[in-house]
Amino acid sequence: MYDFVTQWGPLWGTLASVGQILGFMVVLLLSLAFLLLMDRKVWAAVQMRKGPNTVGAFGLLQSFADFIKFVLKEIIVPAGADRPLFILAPLMTLVFAFITWAVIPVAPGWVISDLNVGILYIFAISSLGVYGIIIGGWASNSKYPFLGALRSAAQMVSYEVSIGFVLVTILLMVGSMNLSDIVEAQAGGFWNWHVLSFDMLPWPTFVITVPMFVIFFISALAETNRPPFDLPEAESELVAGYQVEYSSTPYLLFMIGEYLNIVLMCALMTVLFMGGWHAPFDFAPFTWVPPVFWFAIKVVLFFFMFAMVKALVPRYRYDQLMRLGWKIFLPTSLAAVAVMGAIVVYSNAA
Amino acid sequence: MLSAAAFYILSATAVLSALMVVIAKNPVRAVLFLILAFFSAAGLFVLLGAEFLAMILVIVYVGAVAVLFLFVVMMLDIDFAQLKEGFISHAPLGGVVALALAGILAMTGLSWVSADSASAALQSPTPDDMTNVAALGALIYDRYVLFFQIAGLVLLVAMIGAIVLTLRHRDGVKRQDMHAQVNRKREDSVEIVDIKSGEGIG
Fold first, then answer.
1. pLDDT of residue A350
2. pTM of the full predicted structure?
């Protein structure tokens, strides 16, 4: 934003960055509509169904039809609910899901805000995401939503810890918390991507980063309440968890926020481990493809993995979920931070 | 101009929400206003050029501490009418304490002298060739490393203390033993018995 302000003066600079933000939001929402369809199609294909196929060719417009249906329905607020908070909760979820995207670099220089502390910003905002769920569950003034909200909050707080340590390992490797710097450090072919990180040889850092990548992927599933960790909305026990009392547009906002967070996690995996906008080979014809397409392809690939996990894996039990987070992921990622720190110190000293 | 507007909006939000923490009728809403106060304080840090502190404030206080607050307050069934019953009778004592605290604050504020180098340091809090985070890291891990380690030790002791206070072993609790489950063989649990018809297992 400062670039625009210094370039075009306070008024036009501000307007330019507002336009940029709006454009990015529209692109995000449109791609989300098709990613949602893809989620359902993948799920259907695994179960040998056709999935949505009536609205538009191959059901391409299904998400838009759903959108219109959600918006036109009546908003029902339960009689005992805390009205302002009940409406505020889905709004918070949506806003926090959107503002995290401000620091994601989709191509060289294509980022709303090139923050120096980008990783910390993402971590901070994603830890706020839990409020939308807690407040929604509490404001509904009903038992199932409240239980779902408590579960969800405990789950998100637990898995945030290991996500934080995975982020720390990556930023130790790069020596910067700026996401553009992190992508830039992975230039020059897929063997330099952090998940392999052969450029750190003779230090075999991939021994650390490959497990860290797996931990991040699984923690991302838990953090976004996706199956197999969708206990907050386990329908057999809690009906639909914190969303029970929500209908119409507020429910839609919750759902968009949730999917935005899922895609954000895919984008984060791309940026942190898979080289962001970089092509897998640093020569033609791969470099002819614009960087933003490489970024989008990788994000869609990860989203496909998320969808497949949803289709294939049965739901965890709650104590197993907590055991996995605290007793396996936390010690492993903590050890990885220590080892990676030692490697960085000694490889610089040598 | 933009940053001035942001400053006034953020500080007004911080002060108003801090006030609402005290006067809000509903305890859950009070905690939510507290979170808003933390959040606007983080915004003020950003305006001062201390992004790292701002983010840490949000991560630690808003993301972790306040969640626990909210948990506890939601679980408790607080009757505020009952809580406010003795308000008038306790008011004089509370007033004295508040006055004493305000007096201390005023004395500190009036006797405050800034160093000659303070205004220069305020204008560029971080060295020009370093980012905020690197500058802070250099200070903490270089000049004040002993204090940093001692603070860490204090926190460790507090953590162990909290665990010791709440740890209790109960008998007769069934726990899942993954290792035993995985290592279980068919022979350990299934036995084929040849039962003659009409006799059963004697």
1. 55
2. 0.83
Give the minimum alpha-carbon distance from B55 to chain A in angstroms, rounded to a whole number. 6
First to last CA, chain A: 40
CB-CB neighbors (< 8 A) of B55 in chain A: 117, 120-121, 123-124
The β-bridge partners of A80 are none
CB contact under 8 A, A115 and B52: no
What's the token pair of residue B88?
A: 């008038």
Contacts of A251 (CB under 8 A, 6+ apart): A70, A90, A243
Residue A296: CB atoms within 10 Å:
17
For residue B130, what is the nearest residue in chain A, using CA coordinates?
Answer: A116
Across the A:B interface, residue pairs with CB atoms under 8 Å apart total: 60
Phi/psi for A16 (5° steps) reads -65, -45
Which residues is A107 bridged to in the sheet? A110
How far is Cα A274 from Cα A270, in angstroms, rounded to an integer? 5
Question: A317: nearest CA in chain B?
Answer: B176
B28-64 per-position pLDDT tens digit: 888 889 989 998 998 888 888 778 888 888 888 888 8
Neighbour count for residue B90 (Cβ, 10 Å) = 10
Residue showing tokens 């009418």:
B81
User: Residue A1 has what pLDDT?
Assistant: 44
CB contact under 8 A, B70 and A134: yes
Distance of CA A176 to CAs A119, A210, A272, B133, Å? Answer: 9, 20, 12, 9
Q: How far apart are CA A328 and CA A267, in angstroms?
A: 25
Contact of A142 with A245, CB cutoff 8 Å:
yes
User: Which has the closest alpha carbon to B30: B73, B77, B72, B75?
Assistant: B73
Residues in B touching A319 (Cβ below 8 Å): 176
What per-residue confidence (pLDDT) applies to B115? 76
Nearest one of A160, A183, A159, A161 to A171, comparing CA atoms: A183
Closest listed residue to residue B9, CA positions, set B43, B57, B45: B43
Q: Which residue of A has its CA nearest to B175?
A: A319
CB contact at 8 A, A152 and A241 = yes
Contact A128 B32 (CB under 8 A): no
**Other beta carbons within 10 Å of B45:** 19
Write the DSSP string, A135-173: HHHHHTTSHHHHHHHHHHHHHHHHHHHHHHHHHHHHHHH
Task: Please report how the helices A118-139 and B27-47 are oriented relative to each other, as an axis angle in degrees rounded to 10.
Answer: 160
Report yes or no: A311 and A46 within 8 Å, Cβ to Cβ.
Answer: yes
Among B29, B63, B132, beta carbon nearest to A128: B63
User: How is residue A126 written in tokens?
Assistant: 């994603």
* Closest listed residue to residue A253, CA positions, set A18, A16, A76, A94: A94
Residues of B in contact with A151 (CB under 8 A): none
Give the residue among A166, A133, A174 at the shortest CA–CA distance from A150: A133
Residue A125 is given by DSSP the state H
State the complex-level ipTM: 0.78
Quick one: CA dihedral B172, B173, B177, B183, positive or negative? positive
